[in-house]
Design brief:
Radius of gyration: 22 Å
Shape: elongated
Number of strands: 4
Structural class: mainly alpha
Helix content: 40-55%
Order of helices and strands: HHHEEHHHHHHHEEHH
Number of helices: 12
């Protein structure tokens, strides 16, 4: 969905390139796929940012506090080098605007940034999740955000088992979860939640068992 006034801003910023037609629309849909150093619609980003957001100014560039508020500290920290004015530059430019904003839009959905933004996770839990993600092909990483919707089938099969075992949260001898450790490292299940039957959830295989039972603990109220 478009933001308020975004449609008007886009039309204005592509006006010099023939307006909003099928070609420019297709390019804009692929914005995240544009190469790091080549803006396919020259100066579009600087125009768009100037029209849409308070965290960017055509002269002074990106406002660190505004960017951090809009995208969060992990994303800002990952992109801060590109957000600073280039060495020797007295003001922002089309290239600076594009490279900074392109980084922000890419990092915003990067699984590592999503993990860093999870305030309920301990540092050990964040590291375990990142380590496990790297065991999967990066093509599968695009499905990471789907975990937040708690689908019936695990978006990245066996990811949940991987990070929970790294955190040693399942006792394989007793076949029971170490719930105090889970609460300490992952912030779930919530205090006072009713989760008595979660350990009985059964999936089609061991990975599915982990996923179904852990999802039950996460969703328990």
């Amino acid at each position: 969905a478009l933001l308020d006034h975004e449609g008007e801003a886009i039309k204005k910023c592509v006006e010099r390139y023939g307006g909003l037609n099928s070609d420019t629309a297709e390019r804009l849909e692929r914005f995240k796929e544009w190469s790091e150093g080549y803006e396919e619609i020259p100066c579009f980003t600087q125009c768009y940012l100037g029209e849409m957001f308070d965290f960017y100014n055509n002269r002074t560039g990106f406002d660190s506090e505004g960017v951090e508020k809009a995208f969060g500290s992990p994303v800002y920290n990952a992109c801060h080098k590109k957000l600073e004015l280039p060495y020797g530059a007295s003001q922002s430019s089309c290239t600076h605007a594009y490279e900074g904003f392109h980084c922000l839009t890419l990092m915003e959905s990067h699984p590592f940034m999503v993990i860093e933004g999870m305030t309920n996770l301990s540092p050990a839990a964040k590291n375990a999740m990142k380590d496990c993600l790297q065991q999967f092909d990066e093509v599968e990483w695009s499905r990471f955000q789907a975990f937040g919707n708690f689908p019936v089938v695990e978006p990245i099969p066996c990811f949940t088992q991987c990070f929970l075992d790294k955190l040693n949260l399942f006792d394989h001898r007793t076949r029971r979860w170490r719930l105090p450790g889970m609460q300490q490292k992952l912030g779930v299940p919530a205090k006072g939640a009713k989760y008595g039957t979660c350990h009985r959830q059964i999936g089609a295989n061991p990975c599915a068992n982990y996923y179904k039972q852990f999802t039950c603990y996460v969703m328990a109220v």
